[in-house]
Design brief:
Layout lengths: L25 E3 L16 E2 L2 E2 L20 E8 L2 E7 L15 E6 L5 E6 L10 E2 L3 E4 L2 E8 L12 E6 L4 E5 L9 E4 L6 E6 L7 E6 L5 E6 L4 E7 L2 E6 L2 E8 L7 E6 L1
Antiparallel strand pairs: 1-4, 2-3, 4-5, 5-6, 6-7, 8-10, 9-10, 10-11, 11-12, 13-14, 14-15, 15-16, 17-18, 18-19, 19-20
Length: 267
């Protein structure tokens, strides 16, 4: 197995950071020099330290913070441009409350021009107890989760839906039921079938991986996991789910029918 590239340091605005060609879609997360970001995106730990994420160097036309002071926390590069997610910093000097933090999603075309810029706050289903744990832009649609900030009971179980948004029109296309997604989201197209793999899990709450149809947001398959899902890999009709307790493998079955299945192969 080839060795991964060395982890990136903090991005800068130097011209050397410009990317002449867009690589394949990758996820890049800031190494979180600001501790107020460490309880959010990319804060999973490996041997007690934040994960090192590999991906494209931030080009100068993608700012590290926006005009409102929101910080860049996620950057995806694809053949059509750059998808960036910004979020409000946690305030360490304020009393704890459950209001939603502010989020913006933005897309730059390959020339660096902003194709669209969306304030996600206006599309949340409630003003409190929600946070974005992952977001993806695929096929002209923005997908993001309204993850529970803490135990789902604190929000009466009304959190962790997955949302599809038309960013150009500013219209929510669909929203799944609650308790479907509070971690990574992966668009997949095995055999041309368009789905999202996502998961839900948190400490002593039940852990699941779900298959969501991208056309209408229907949760078409769900499987119980032994631990909270952290990431996914698809190879043909095989789905590998990395969880807090190890890796579990499923076969993606009957994807071209109305009743797709996640068939457990190993745990």
């Amino acid at each position: 197995m080839p060795c991964p590239p060395p982890p990136l340091g903090p991005a800068s605005d130097d011209a050397a950071n410009a990317a002449p060609a867009l690589p394949d879609r990758q996820q890049w997360l800031d190494p979180f020099p600001d501790p107020r970001l460490r309880s959010h995106l990319g804060s999973d730990l490996v041997d007690g330290t934040p994960k090192a994420w590999f991906g494209p160097v931030r080009p100068p036309f993608v700012p590290a913070s926006d005009a409102q002071g929101l910080a860049l926390v996620l950057l995806d590069a694809g053949p059509d441009g750059w998808f960036a997610l910004y979020r409000e910093l946690y305030r360490t000097d304020a009393p704890l409350d459950w209001r939603n933090q502010r989020y913006r999603a933005r897309f730059h075309d390959p020339d660096g021009k902003i194709a669209w810029d969306v304030d996600l706050g206006g599309h949340f289903s409630r003003p409190d107890h929600l946070e974005v744990q992952d977001a993806r832009f695929a096929g002209g649609v923005l997908y993001f989760n309204e993850a529970c900030q803490t135990y789902s009971a604190e929000a009466g179980g009304l959190c962790s839906s997955l949302v599809a948004l038309d960013p150009a029109g500013g219209r929510v296309l669909w929203r799944t039921p609650p308790l479907v997604s509070n971690g990574r989201v992966a668009p997949i197209e095995p055999g041309g079938a368009r789905y999202l793999v996502t998961g839900y899990g948190f400490t002593d709450e039940p852990d699941f991986v779900s298959l969501v149809r991208r056309d209408d947001g229907r949760v078409v398959a769900r499987a119980r996991l032994a631990g909270a899902p952290e990431n996914y890999a698809v190879d043909g009709d095989t789905l590998r789910v990395h969880t807090a307790r190890g890796e579990e493998t499923f076969r993606l079955d009957a994807l071209d029918t109305s009743e797709p299945k996640l068939v457990p192969l190993s745990r």
